[in-house]
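Ticket reopened. Same input as before:
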Amino acid sequence: SAVISQKPSRDICQRGTSLTIQCQVDSQVTMMFWYRQQPGQSLTLIATANQGSEATYESGFVIDKFPISRPNLTFSTLTVSNMSPEDSSIYLCSVEQVTGNTIYFGEGSWLTVV
Amino acid sequence: AQTVTQSQPEMSVQEAETVTLSCTYDTSESDYYLFWYKQPPSRQMILVIRQEAYKQQNATENRFSVNFQKAAKSFSLKISDSQLGDAAMYFCAYRASTSYGKLTFGQGTILTVHP
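Engineering reply: fixed in the latest deploy. New output:
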């Protein structure tokens, strides 16, 4: 199984600021994925982070609000920009292992915007 | 678009008993994958079990098994010999075979285990 580490695990952020979440995988993967889980809700896919190209965003998510970097095959960052209380969520990084088509998640980054 | 529905917001079970969590999905695809994830209070998403749609045999993982009914588009999770550590939110998720890494989740079912 893949081991995925995320930083920070939790943070309290001021309204209007931006925060970058890091995701590190213990093996090389082609694509990494970012999900959002709003309080009491299910998970929603934000975007797919591709190495060497721009991220692909799902409907309702835009690059200006959630810029993503993917500098190599084991690392990605998601920035939540100009935060408002509505951005208070758990943000999760995930990867899919080709062998077994199994999808693994990081521990999540729990952001609270005040 | 694919949708996943978990009609039980909450379920409870006595320790050592068996409980079944329901999940239905809607898709026009013939090939896909289905998953059950467990999310304890720590918020970590833990894979419980996985099923390939092309396999008729139901997946099992120790005390966890599924009842996969492809024609009915149903994918229920059975937990046998429930333990206190099974208490968590359980999510059913769908992945089309052509949508690498992209999951569509159900709304989740909170499972409480009573000692």
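The longest strand of chain A covers residues 89-97. Chain A has one domain: 21-107. Please confirm and we'll close it.
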